[in-house]
Amino acid sequence: MPDLKTTETTKTIAILGAGTMGNGIAHVCARSGFNVILYDLQQPFLDRGLATIEKNLAREVTKNKLTQQQADEARARITPTLDREALGSCSFAIEAATEKFAIKSEIFRDLDRILPAGAILATNTSSISITKLAAVTKRPEQVIGMHFFNPVPVMQLVEVIRGLATSQATFDAVHALSLQLGKTPVEVNDAAGFISNRVLMPLINEAIYSVMEGVATAEAVDQVFVLGMAHPMGPLTLADFIGLDVCADIMRVLADGLGSPKYNPCPLLVRMVDAGWLGRKSGRGFYTYP
Ligand code: CAA
């Protein structure tokens, strides 16, 4: 493992969470020339995340988007760690942990203690209040939302979310970083689900109600959106892709934050999550995966 202390501070980004979003963000940061320290709680999580990055870099080489040398250099810029204290050399952090306030707030408190005073703390939350997360730190003006989309190496958008206290300098830095990562930043204010999930998740939830009530099969619902609305994948395929647990968690955040029962997760969604049918990552959701 390279000596983390020798890594150039201003070019090093801490990424917390090596899951679907975290490994995608690490991939994009490394591909854009940044050093990355990728943190997770357990070695198997890091191993799985790094294996995914290697597979996706290889896919980009096959598609002639990267040379083999560029892919090798990107991979070499990523240093995995199980030690949060190792993030002390980073000037920027992007948290991509589980979508639960208790987990994220514990991480933010720790990042506030470990990272240098000037460092920006960004969260890839898809729905949790930036203002509330910022309030657990002593640097709320340097806390911001940086919401990427799956698959991160492919999707162009970054929703940039200002908390109540986020400074203009922090916003400008994140706007510039998003462009350096080859993404298009879109500014959104801090309300539950921001724009993306406030609109997408009720669509997915309603698609699940349609299946639960026997209006149509999952395949038929998806065909309606692929063939009728030119969506690249139907809402139930997309739900499996995002993770049914993530979809249910986001619906609960919408219900709490926007104060309406219309955002409660569909009972079929809740039952599928209870059964461990989480979509693509567990091998079964609305469809089955080998
Ligand atoms: N890394 C790198 N490249 C990848 C990739 C990955 N993980 N996954 C796919 N690609 C590339 C492929 O190599 C391919 O490249 P070319 O166009 O150069 O051939 C391209 O992406 C398209 O992939 P495929 O041909 O394999 O498959 P596809 O045409 O079916 O596209 C898809 C796959 C891009 C995922 C497409 O189905 C799609 O856009 N789906 C919708 C995705 C979406 O809505 N994402 C947002 C989810 S919501 C979210 O993330 C936020 C939230 O808060 C929940």
Automatic annotation (TrEMBL):
All copies of domain 3-hydroxyacyl-CoA dehydrogenase NAD binding, residue ranges: 12-190
Record: residues binding NAD(+): G17, A18, G19, T20, M21, G22, D40, E99, K104, S126, N150, K281
Endpoints of the signal sequence: none
SUPFAM superfamilies cross-referenced by the UniProt entry: 6-phosphogluconate dehydrogenase C-terminal domain-like, NAD(P)-binding Rossmann-fold domains
Domain 3-hydroxyacyl-CoA dehydrogenase C-terminal residue range list: 193-289
Residues the UniProt record annotates as site (Important for catalytic activity): H147
Name of the featured protein: 3-hydroxybutyryl-CoA dehydrogenase
Organism of origin: Tunturiibacter empetritectus
